[in-house]
Specification:
The chain is about 45% helix and about 30% strand. The protein is of the alpha+beta class. The longest helix is centred in the middle third of the chain and has 27 residues. It is globular and about 55 Å long. The two termini are about 35 Å apart. The mean pLDDT is about 90. The chain binds adenosine-3',5'-cyclic-monophosphate. The site of adenosine-3',5'-cyclic-monophosphate (CMP) has 14 residues, from strand 4, helix 2 and helix 4.
Length: about 220
């Protein structure tokens, strides 16, 4: 059973009917679901896997707004505020996503006001998060932002293991740096420092958080 804000407030019959009306897409790492600037007429719900939302500057640098996992939705902004896509959606780890046309969603929303309420809640949560990320860019140093990004990724993709929490984020070092908003070298240095202190252990495209308390303190 997929839990998502889109289905919160719906009875099981309605959510089953809504899921049945959505198109299921199997997508693989590197596939682009849509590009920033394109017109958008559908939204997506992640059932499995990971999707990154990124923006590119005029000189070609990339910034990641978010990495989304199961239950999360994207592509709704161009519905609520008609206009071009505000980010590019790319598959980070093989994923299954459900696709719903904006037109179909509007029909559902008209019929189920509580669904609209839950969607607003999801948008409000995202705005809070974005405000926090913005403040961190201004007020926090890179190691603080790396610590925060790891903790944030752990809430989505973390699995408890004997030593702590294993976070299989599937991001390359470059992608992790784009998420933190710093150079690969600086992010690497912060991670190496955390590892030397025994706070984390790096395992390719995963990291084991060994000392969550210290990371939380460093993220503040
Ligand atoms: P849309 O603009 O249609 O396409 C890009 C999507 O990225 C957008 O809808 C949102 O769903 C998502 N998105 C944009 N900004 C953020 C953000 N700051 N955090 C998480 N998701 C975002």
């Amino acid at each position: 059973m997929l839990t998502a804000p889109l289905f919160a407030g719906m009875d099981e019959g309605s959510s089953t009917a809504l899921i049945a009306s959505m198109k299921v897409l199997d997508v693989t790492r590197g596939e682009v679901l849509f590009h920033e600037g394109e017109p958008g007429d559908r939204l997506y719900l992640v059932r499995d896997g990971k999707i990154k939302l990124g923006r590119r500057s005029n000189d070609g640098r990339e910034n990641l707004l978010a990495v989304l996992g199961p239950g999360e939705m994207f592509g709704e902004l161009s519905l609520f505020d008609p206009g071009p896509r505000t980010a590019t959606a790319t598959v980070v780890a093989d994923a299954v996503v459900l696709e719903l046309g904006h037109h179909d969603l509007v029909t559902w929303l008209a019929d189920k006001p509580t669904v609209a309420e839950h969607l607003l809640q999801a948008l409000a949560r995202r705005l809070r998060r974005t405000n926090e990320a913005l403040a961190d860019l201004v007020f926090s140093d890179v190691p603080g932002r790396v610590a925060k990004a790891l903790l944030d990724l752990s809430t989505r993709f973390g699995q408890p293991v004997d030593e702590g929490i294993r976070v299989a984020h599937d991001l390359t070092q470059e992608e992790l740096a784009q998420l933190v908003g710093a150079s690969r070298e600086t992010v690497n240095k912060a991670l190496a420092d955390f590892a030397a202190r025994g706070w984390v252990r790096r395992e390719g495209r995963a990291v084991v958080l060994l000392d969550v308390d210290r990371l939380e303190r460093r993220a503040r």
